[in-house]
Structure formats: C-alpha cells, structure tokens
Amino acid sequence: MEITSQQLPEDWKRLLEAALDARRRAYAPYSGFSVGAALLDEQDAVHHGCNVENAAYGPTNCAERTALFRAVADGHKAGSFKAIAVVGDTEQPITPCGVCRQVLSELCGPDMPVIMGNLRGDWAVTTVAELLPGAFKL
Ligand code: THU
Fold first, then answer.
1. CA 16 to CA 34: how far, in whole Å?
2. Residue 39 is part of which domain span?
3. CB distance 96 to ligand 1 below 6 Å
4. Would the CB of 63 count as within 6 Å of ligand 1?
5. Candidates 10, 17, 64, 91; catalytic one
6. What spacing in Å lies between the alpha carbon of 41 and ligand 1's midpoint?
C-alpha cells in the first residue's frame, strides 16, 4: 500500500512531524545519520524515539526500537499501538531495518500502519506484515 502525502490523514501527518522532532535528538556520532520515530499509542499519546549509537557499534539502537521499547517500559502492551512514523534523510522514504521489522512484528499488530518519510517531504505507508512476511514467532 502506498499513498500520497495529500491523502495522509491528519493524525499521521502529526505523527510524521513528531518523528521529525524526535530526529533532532538522535545520538549518531559514528554514522552521522539521524533517524526519528514516533509511535502512537491506544490513547493517542505519542512516544518519541531516535537512534542511539555506540562506539562498539553493535549496541546501537534504531529510532523505531527506541520508541517501541520506551513505550513498553512505560506500561503499554504489545499489540496496543495504532501507528508508527519514521523519518530519515534518505532519497526515498526511509524503510525500517530488518531487526526493527522483527521487533515491530512482535510488538505491533500485523495491520498496524508504518508511515515512512524523508526530509524532502516524500511519504509512503505500509503495514507491519508487509514489511516482514513470515516473521519468526515463538
Ligand atoms: N537507523 C535507524 O535508526 N532506523 C532505521 O530505520 C535505519 C537505520 C539508524 C541505525 C544507525 O544509527 C544509523 O541509522 C545508520 O544505520
């Protein structure tokens, strides 16, 4: 599913703006690539996330997972989220990495919208299941 910016519902536009705001707080001294995410919960509250890098590289946390993990740590339940937006300075709307797709598939419903954007104003919308068909589950 892909829809144009004009068709984006207002709450998704606001979510993208929140992701842009979160991006400003990225800690990305190694890649220089800042990413922001904004997760909408069941009460329409927004949880911000940014990428947080590390000198050992491996511990780096992507913006999407930062938003998801902090919302879970704040008491929100897996499957209760309404949407997530993610923004980076990419040619096309940024797409979540494989690790984040696995985490999205665990903590979000398969039909949950994932709104992807860049700094040029390009947007695309997909779903958790479209991002990772056949996700590993226990
Ligand atoms: N990154 C994210 O935060 N989200 C994505 O969807 C793609 C990649 C981060 C990880 C790392 O800090 C930097 O972008 C470069 O890969």
1. 15
2. 2-131
3. yes
4. yes
5. 64
6. 22
> Between β-strands 123-127 and 113-118, what pairing exists: parallel, antiparallel or unpaired?
antiparallel
Evaluate whether residue 60 is within a structural domain.
Answer: yes
Residue 8's identity, in one-letter code, is L
- Does the residue 54 lie in any domain? yes
In this structure, is residue 137 part of a structural domain?
no
Which uninterrupted H or E stretch holds 16?
A: helix 10-23
Q: What is the mean pLDDT of the chain?
A: 95
**What is the spatial distance between Cα 94 and Cα 135, in angstroms, rounded to a whole number?**
20
> The pTM is what?
0.95
pLDDT of residue 7: 79
User: Helix, strand or coil for residue 88?
Assistant: strand
| Residue 18 main-chain phi, psi, to 5 deg | -65, -35
Percentage of the chain with pLDDT > 90?
Answer: 93
Beta-strand pair 83-88/123-127: unpaired
What's the domain count of the chain?
Answer: 1
Our answer to whether residue 64 is catalytic in this structure is yes
